[in-house]
Amino acid sequence: MLPGDPRTPVTIVTGWLGAGKTTLLNRVLSEPRGLRWAVLVNEFGQVAIDHRLVVRSSEQVIELANGCVCCTVRGDLVASLARLRRRRPPWFRRPRFDRVLLETTGLAEPGPLLRTFLVEAGVSAAYRVDAVLTLVDAAHADLALAEPIALEQIVLADLLVLNKADLVDAPACARLRDRLLALNPAATLVEAVRAQIPLAEVLQRREPPAGRELPAPDAHAEHLDGISAICLRSTQPLDELKTQLWLNGAVKLLGPRLIRFKGFLDLDDRPYRGVLQGVYDLYTVDAGPPWSEGEPRMSEIVLIGRELDAAFLQRG
Questions:
Q1: DSSP per-residue string spanning the chain
Q2: Would you call the peptide bond into 90 cis, given omega within 30 degrees of 0 as the criterion?
Q3: CA distance linking residue 207 with residue 287, whole number of Å
Q4: What is d(CA 155, CA 246) in angstroms, rounded to the nearest whole number?
Q5: How many CB atoms are located within 10 Å of the residue 193 CB?
Q6: Rounded to two decimals, what is the model's pTM?
Q7: Residue 9 in contact with residue 99, Cβ under 8 Å?
Q8: What sign for the dihedral angle of Cα 126, 134, 113, 64?
Q9: Per residue of the chain (316 residues), what is the pLDDT tens digit?
Q10: Which one, of 33, 42, 21, 103, lies nearest residue 68 by Cα?
C-alpha cells in the first residue's frame, strides 16, 4: 500500500470460544489514548461491553464516554460498514472515527470477512485490513486445535496472542508457541495474561515478514487436520506477468486447500516490494516499502493450507 492511504484501518479480532476476545475488547476501549474506535460486534448479548464505559445505547448502537461507538452486525457486514460511514451526530460528537475493530464470534471463520474487504468495491475503497488478531487460550489450546474453525483462525492470523499464559507452565507454553508458529510461521506471536497486551500491538499494521528467519522452503509445519505451512524464497527478480499467471494458476489448481498466502515479491524493475496478501482464491499485490540501498532483494512467500505439495510449489 502506498503511503498516505486514506482508507480507514480495520483490525479483525477472532479466536475460539473463551479465548479472551471480550476482555481484549474492553481493554482496548478503555485506553485513554484519544483514538476514536468504531467497534463492530455480532450481538451485544454475546459481547459484554463494560457498563462503566457506556454513556448511551440503543438497539443497534452504544456510545462510549471516550468517543468510541459500538454497532451491531446482524447479517450483512457490507451494509453495516456503509451505515457506519453514513452515521452522524448525535451518536458521534465528532463525525469521524479513526479505526474499526471488528470482533467475530468464536465460531466464525475470518476468511469470509477478509474476502469482503478484498472483493466488495464499496468496502475496499473505504476500508483496509491492517491485521487479523487471533487469541488462543493457552490453558485449553488442545481442545481448540481439534476444531477446524479454530485452526483456520490461527492460520489466517497476522498476530497471535497466546492468552492466559500464566495458567500453564513454561515448558508447556514453549511447546504451544512452537506448535502455533509451525502452523503459521508468518505470524507475530505474543504472550498475554488477561489479554493485557500493549495497545501498540493491536494498532500495528501487519505486513508479511521481511528478513525473518522462516523454515526452509521444503519444510512442512506440524500437520493438524492436514494443515501445513510452506515457505518459498527466490533471489531471482520476478517478471510481473509470469508471477500473476503463476498465482492465478496456483489458486485455481489448489482451490479450497489453499487457505492463506502472503509475502514480499521482488518484481523486476520495481523500486519497491510487492506486498502479496491472499485468502483462498483471492489475492492482492500492492506497492510496499521501497528496497533500501544495498539491501539484498529477495522474494519470500508463505503458503498455508491443507495437503499442499511443497515440491510442486517450489518448482513453480
A1: --TT--SEEEEEEEESTTSSHHHHHHHHHT--SS--EEEEES-TTTS---GGGEEEE-SSEEEETTS-EEEE--S-HHHHHHHHHH--TTS-SSS--SEEEEEPPTT--HHHHHHHHHH-HHHHTTEEEEEEEEEEEGGGHHHHHTSHHHHHHHHT-SEEEEE-GGGS-HHHHHHHHHHHHHH-TTSEEEE-STT---HHHHHSPP---SS-----TT--PPPBTTEEEEEEEE-SPBPHHHHHHHHHHHHHHHGGGEEEEEEEE-BTT-SEEEEEEEETTEEEEEEEEEPPTTPPP-EEEEEEEES--HHHHHH-
A2: yes
A3: 12
A4: 22
A5: 13
A6: 0.76
A7: yes
A8: negative
A9: 445 678 889 999 999 988 988 888 878 877 766 677 777 776 544 445 554 544 444 445 555 555 556 665 555 678 778 777 765 444 444 446 788 888 887 888 888 888 888 888 888 888 889 999 999 999 999 888 888 899 999 999 999 999 999 999 999 999 999 999 988 988 999 999 999 998 888 888 877 655 444 444 443 344 556 788 888 888 999 999 999 999 999 999 998 889 888 888 999 988 888 989 888 888 888 888 888 888 889 898 888 888 888 888 888 8
A10: 33
- Whose cell is 498455508? That residue is 304
The residue count for the chain: 316
Q: Find where cell 478484498 sits.
A: 118
